[in-house]
Specification:
By secondary structure, this protein is α+β, with helices and mostly antiparallel strands. It contains 15 helices and 32 strands. The strands form seven sheets. Strands 24, 25, 26, 27, 28, 29, 30, 31 and 32 form a nine-stranded mixed beta sheet that branches. A six-stranded mixed beta sheet has the order 17-14-20-21-22-23, sandwiched between helices. Strands 1, 2, 3, 6 and 7 form a five-stranded antiparallel beta sheet that branches.
C-alpha cells in the first residue's frame, strides 16, 4: 500500500512539473499570432517562460542572436531561457518579428549621486538598430550609492554633473554614436549585398574584405584595452576615490556590452561575405585551354605553309632566267660546269642602326639639361635623362647611405642614344638604361674598379636594344661617387673616361660625379670640350642636386604616362580589384619579358625568373601599375619592385603559392608564364595574399605581346 501511494505521488509530481510551464504567469507579447510569456529579472534581463505558435507556419525561436528551438503550428513550448539582449522569431521565408530588446540604462555619476534609468524590456518597434547595453544590478547600484562621499563644500553645489555615460560616449570606439554608426554600416552593407545583382563585384568594389580585416584587427586590439579605458573614464569623470572602485565594474560591463554589439555586427557581415559562393571555373578554364591549343595549332599550320611558299619562291628566284653565251666570259665566282649553281657571297660587316632621338625630344619623361647651364665649352649640347634612370641611380646611392660611417665609392654605366649636329659640331644624348656592375667589382673608400662582368652586361643589353628597336644605342655616360670628398674629376677618373669613350665619336661620352654625403647629394656633370680635352671642376659654373632630380622624376611619372604607349595585361579580367586595376607594359618591358621566358624555356628553369620594376599610379581609390622594365632575379634592385615574373610548366595555383611563399607581402601582382601552354597569366596580390578568384586573372599569349610591340615600333 505504501509503495502504491509513493508511485502515485511521483506520478502526480511529474504531471505538475510538466503542466507548470503551460500555466506559467508573467507578461505577454503577441506578434503575428506568436505569443511569448516572460518574467522580468532585477538586472533588466528577462526569462522566456513560454512560446505559443498560433500561426499556420513553423517558426524558429531566436534568443540573443542564437537559434534555440523550432515551434510548429498550434504548438506551445517552455524554453525557460534567460534573454540578455533580444528575443525574436524567424519563419521559413526568412522574415519574422522581434518581441523584446534590452535597452541600455543611463548611469550618471557625480560627487553627489548615482542615477539609474530603468531598462525598458519590451521594445516598441522591430526596425531600430541594436545598441550596446549596460546591465547594473540593483545591488551594485545600492553599493555604489553607499560609497559616494557627501559634498565637501557648499561651493560645489552648482558644479555641473559629470556623466560617466557621457565620458564613454566621447570614446571614438565605445561611444554610443560610434557603435550605432558601425552597426548601421554593417547592416547597410548586408542589405546592399543581398540587393546586388553581382554580389561578388559589389564586395570587391567596396573592398569589404579589407574593411573586415581592419575591423577584426581593431576588435582584437580594443578587447584587451577595456580595463585601462574604464579606469581612464572614471579618472576623467571627477569621481571621488572612494566611489571609483564601485563604479569601475559598471563601466567595464558597459564597455563589454558595446564591444559585443560591434563584434556581433562584424560577424554578421563576415558571414554574409563568406557565404557568397565562388563560381566554378574549371570547365571554363578547360574550354580556354582547348581554344588556345586550337589557335596555336592554326598558327603553326599557317607558319608551315608560309615557310613552304617562301622556299618555293626562293628556288624559283635562284634559277637562271637565260643561258650564258658560249663565247661570253664567265664571272670569276661562277664554275665552268653548267650543272653547278651560282655561288653568292654576302658581306659580313655589321651595319649601324638608325641614329635618332625619336621618342625622346619633347617627351615629359625626360629631364633636359643644356650644357650652357653648367659650362662654357662642351662637345655635348643637350642631355636628356629619363626619369627611370634618375630613380635607379638615386636608389643605388640610397643603399650606400645606410653606412655613412664607412662610405665607399660606387658607380654604374648608362646606355642611351646620340645624334651629331654637323653645323654646331655638338652632340645631343639620351640617358635611358642603367647597367650595374657585377660581383667582381671592387668599391672601396678611395678605389673604384668596375670589374670585367659589367662589359658582358653592357654588350648583352646593347645587342638586345639595337635588335628590338632598330636604333643605335651606345654607352653614353658613366656615374660614380666621391662620398665626403666633394665633386671633382680626378686623374684616375680621366683615365676611365678615355678607356670608355667611343672609337669613332669619342666626344659624346659624359661623366656624372656625386658626393652622396652632402645634404642635397651635390652632383657635377663633366664633358669633353670641343677640342677633345676634358672639362674640370674649375670649368663648372653650376652644380646639380640628385635629390631634386629624384623629386622631379617621381612627379614626372604621372605626366609622362600615356595609355596609348602601354599594353594593359589585365584588360581581359572579368572583374578588376581597386587595388590592382591595371598592369601597363611598355615596349621595353615586353622585350625584357619575352627574352626571360625564352631563356627559362630553353633551360627548363622554374620559379621566379624576374622582378618587375615600375611605379604606382592612383586615380581616386583605384591603383594602376606602370612597368618600366623587367630584370633577372640575380639583378634585383633595392627598390622599385612591384611584381614578379614566374615560369612553371603547367599553370597550377598550389605550385605558384608555394613558389611565392614569403614574398607576396612585398609584391602587388605576379606574372605567371606556362611553358607548356605558352601563355602568360596576370594575377593580382591583395593584402599580401595571392588571390584565388580566377575572374580577377587575365591571360595572354607571348605571340600577341610580340605583335603589339612590332605594331608600336
Amino acid at each position: 500500500m505504501t509503495n502504491l501511494i509513493r508511485s502515485y505521488t511521483i506520478l502526480l509530481s511529474l504531471l505538475i512539473s510538466g503542466l507548470f510551464p503551460l500555466i506559467a504567469t508573467g507578461k505577454e507579447v503577441t506578434k503575428e499570432k506568436v505569443t511569448i510569456v516572460y518574467e522580468e529579472n532585477a538586472d533588466g534581463t528577462i526569462k522566456v517562460q513560454q512560446v505559443s505558435n498560433k500561426s499556420e507556419k513553423w517558426i524558429d525561436l531566436v534568443i540573443d542572436g542564437n537559434k534555440q528551438s523550432r515551434v510548429y503550428p498550434n504548438t506551445t513550448i517552455s524554453p525557460n531561457k534567460i534573454a540578455k539582449k533580444s528575443v525574436q522569431f524567424d519563419d521559413l521565408n526568412g522574415t519574422g518579428a522581434r518581441f523584446w530588446r534590452y535597452k541600455e540604462p543611463t548611469i550618471k555619476v557625480t560627487e553627489d549621486k548615482v542615477v539609474e534609468d530603468k531598462a525598458k524590456p519590451i521594445e516598441e518597434t522591430t526596425q531600430s538598430v541594436p545598441t550596446t547595453s549596460v546591465k547594473p544590478t540593483e545591488k551594485k547600484i545600492a553599493e555604489a550609492k553607499k560609497t559616494i562621499e557627501p559634498k565637501q563644500q557648499p561651493a560645489k553645489r552648482n558644479r555641473k554633473e559629470i556623466s560617466v555615460t557621457e565620458q564613454i560616449n566621447r570614446n571614438s570606439f565605445f561611444g554610443q554614436e560610434a557603435v550605432n554608426a558601425y552597426i548601421q554600416k554593417c547592416e547597410t552593407f548586408n542589405k546592399a549585398i543581398e540587393a546586388s545583382d553581382n554580389k561578388r563585384q559589389f564586395i570587391i568594389d567596396n573592398d569589404l574584405n579589407g574593411f573586415l580585416s581592419a575591423s577584426e584587427s581593431e576588435l582584437s586590439q580594443k578587447k584587451g584595452e577595456i580595463p585601462s579605458i574604464a579606469q581612464s573614464i572614471i579618472a576623467s569623470s571627477k569621481v571621488s576615490e572612494a566611489s571609483q572602485s564601485s563604479i569601475v565594474n559598471l563601466v567595464v560591463e558597459t564597455l563589454n556590452n558595446r564591444f559585443n554589439s560591434r563584434e556581433q555586427a562584424y560577424k554578421n557581415l563576415k558571414t554574409t561575405v563568406d557565404s557568397i559562393p565562388q563560381e566554378e571555373s574549371a570547365t571554363h578554364h578547360l574550354k580556354n585551354n582547348i581554344l588556345n591549343y586550337i589557335i596555336v595549332g592554326v598558327i603553326i599550320l599557317v607558319l608551315i605553309l608560309w615557310i613552304i611558299i617562301a622556299i618555293i619562291r626562293k628556288q624559283k628566284k635562284s634559277r637562271p632566267t637565260s643561258t650564258p653565251q658560249k663565247n661570253a666570259p664567265l664571272p670569276a665566282h661562277v664554275p665552268t660546269d653548267d650543272n653547278q649553281a651560282i655561288v653568292v657571297r654576302r658581306r659580313t660587316t655589321s651595319i649601324l642602326k638608325k641614329q635618332s632621338l625619336e621618342g625622346v625630344i619633347g617627351n615629359p619623361a625626360y629631364l633636359v639639361i643644356n650644357s650652357a647651364d653648367f659650362t662654357r665649352d662642351s662637345a655635348v649640347r643637350d642631355i636628356y635623362i629619363k626619369n627611370t634612370c634618375i630613380k635607379e641611380v638615386y636608389n643605388l646611392y640610397a643603399e650606400d647611405l645606410r653606412n655613412t660611417d664607412n662610405p665607399k665609392e660606387d658607380g654604374c654605366m648608362v646606355l642611351g642614344r646620340w645624334v651629331y649636329d654637323n653645323v654646331s659640331h655638338t652632340y645631343d644624348i639620351s640617358l635611358e638604361t642603367v647597367i650595374l656592375p657585377g660581383d667582381d667589382a671592387v668599391f672601396k673608400e678611395y678605389e673604384l674598379n668596375f670589374g670585367g662582368k659589367i662589359k658582358l652586361r653592357i654588350a648583352d643589353k646593347l645587342r638586345k636594344l639595337r635588335r628590338e628597336t632598330n636604333l643605335q644605342y651606345d654607352l653614353v655616360c658613366w656615374i660614380h661617387s666621391h662620398p665626403g670628398l666633394g665633386v671633382f674629376f680626378s686623374n684616375s677618373d680621366d683615365t676611365v673616361q678615355m678607356q670608355l669613350k667611343h672609337s669613332q665619336h669619342p666626344n659624346f661620352l659624359v661623366a656624372f660625379v656625386v658626393d652622396i654625403l652632402t645634404s642635397d647629394q651635390e652632383m657635377g656633370i663633366f664633358t669633353f670640350r670641343k677640342d677633345g680635352s676634358m672639362n674640370s671642376k674649375g670649368d663648372l659654373t653650376k652644380m646639380y642636386s640628385l635629390e631634386e632630380m629624384y623629386k622631379w622624376a617621381l612627379e614626372s611619372d604621372k605626366a609622362s604616362f600615356n595609355p596609348d604607349n602601354y599594353y594593359n595585361i589585365l584588360y581581359r579580367a572579368k572583374i578588376k580589384t581597386p587595388s590592382c586595376q591595371g598592369i601597363e607594359l611598355n615596349n621595353s618591358s615586353i622585350i625584357d619579358l619575352t627574352q626571360l621566358v625564352t631563356e627559362s624555356s630553353a633551360t627548363d628553369l622554374n620559379g621566379i625568373i624576374g622582378w618587375v620594376i615600375g611605379t604606382q599610379l592612383e586615380t581616386g581609390y583605384k591603383k594602376e601599375f606602370v612597368v618600366s622594365n623587367i630584370v633577372k632575379t640575380a639583378d634585383k634592385p633595392t627598390t622599385g619592385v612591384i611584381g614578379a615574373l614566374m615560369s612553371v610548366p603547367h599553370f597550377s595555383l598550389p605550385t605558384i603559392q608555394r613558389l611565392l611563399a614569403g614574398k607576396g607581402s612585398r609584391l602587388s601582382f605576379v606574372l605567371v608564364y606556362s611553358s607548356k601552354q605558352m601563355s602568360l597569366t596576370a594575377i593580382p596580390i591583395i593584402n599580401g595574399q595571392l588571390t584565388t578568384d580566377e575572374e580577377l586573372y587575365s591571360e595572354e599569349t607571348i605571340d600577341d605581346l610580340k605583335i603589339w610591340t612590332r605594331r608600336k615600333r
